Amino acid sequence: MITVTSAVRFEENVPQTTRQQAWKLVVAAANLVRTRAVQLVSKPAKRIRKKRKRTTSKGKKGTQYTVFVGSQPGEPPQVRRGFGRKNIAMEEYPDSMTIRLGVRKNAAYMAYLEVGTGRIKPRPWLTRALNESAGALKALRIR
Fold first, then answer.
1. pTM of the entire predicted model
2. Residue 3: its pLDDT value, please?
3. Are 114 and 124 in contact (CB under 8 A)?
4. Could you give the maximum distance between any two Cα atoms of the chain, in Å?
5. Where are the alpha helices (DSSP H) in the chain?
6. Burial letters for 114-132: b for 16+ Cβ neighbours within 10 Å, e otherwise?
7. How far, in Å, are 74, 86, 113 from residue 71 at the CA level?
8. Which portions of the chain are predicted below pLDDT 70?
9. Residue 54 belongs to some domain of the structure
10. What pLDDT does residue 64 have?
11. Which of 4, 27, 94, 135 has the fewest CB atoms within 10 Å, counting from its CB?
């Protein structure tokens, strides 16, 4: 999994109820960021239907195919089939108070879209979700 990790560390003498409340806040924060990341990659790509044309003795015939117009560099990736969006995952480790948020291994191309490659300019979606969720994360409080 390609991830962003969030962890909380405590001293040994912290009460268990405080640890449980902190864990609830960490989970809530991770869910906020994951939800925003899914929203960012949910915009559908523009689809253009094209027709192949050929002329036969009985007239014009042809088949159709779809061309996708993708996102611009700097914008989050757009949805074609939803595979990348479905593979945005969150792993929880309550014992170590850690949460990992990212994409599963089978959708590693989403990580390439996030940081870019030699041929593809970055289309950040996870860091943008973190930045856009900053205000909501600061507003989280123990209830």
1. 0.80
2. 60
3. yes
4. 88
5. 16-40, 83-86, 109-115, 126-132, 134-139
6. beeeeeeeebbbbebbbee
7. 8, 18, 10
8. 1-8, 142-143
9. no
10. 85
11. 135
